[in-house]
Amino acid sequence: MPYHISDQKTLSELKPGMKIGFTLVVTKTSSSIADVRVREYHSVERDPDQALRLKELDAAMRLDSVTIKTGQSVPDFALVDQNNQPVTLSQFEGKVVAMTFIYTRCPLPDYCLRMSNNFGRLQKRFGRRLGRDLILLSLTFDPEHDRPEVLAKYAANWKANEGWHFLTGPLGAVKQVCGMFGMNFWPDEGLMTHSLHTVVIDRHGKLVANIEGNQFTAEQLGDLIEAVLTAR
Asked: pTM for the complete prediction?
């Protein structure tokens, strides 16, 4: 997971392989790190905490699915939504699908909350087209906690209508779908470390865009979707 840092001079003092500690500063709209400290250790053995994280990262990235490239067809998948109803990608044939990845316990406002806010803005912008012409899918990568009843409460917070599905399912199925789009995640000290991806699939089931990160606006995402909706 990338972090913002306010004092760029600090980075010039760091070298690859250093173990650091820092303070995570979270406001209502953003997060950043400060007070970066280099942690010294003298053992020739690999640090146990780091070893565990590397093991978890390796396990998280060993996915059976193959990353889909732009222009390729997206394979069908089956999960359940916040109403505990089955949802497949194929049921939205002929519609544009936008998909992002979140978990409901994410504490950082510029990560999962921003992804959900982007979709909330899309819901307002496209109004009546949502459900009829455009589908929004928010897939949790924390299915152990984010069961349908949890997602239902989360969806209610965003006033999600019937065209916006919050998806979960068995961990293996969730990993399979995440792997299609290069979405990586792993547990880290009670929370989840993860990448950020927003996906757009056209009416023919082909991947139009796989946007990584959070350095785009809801308006820019909406303009992209508008162009895909217009294309035939």
From this structure: 0.76
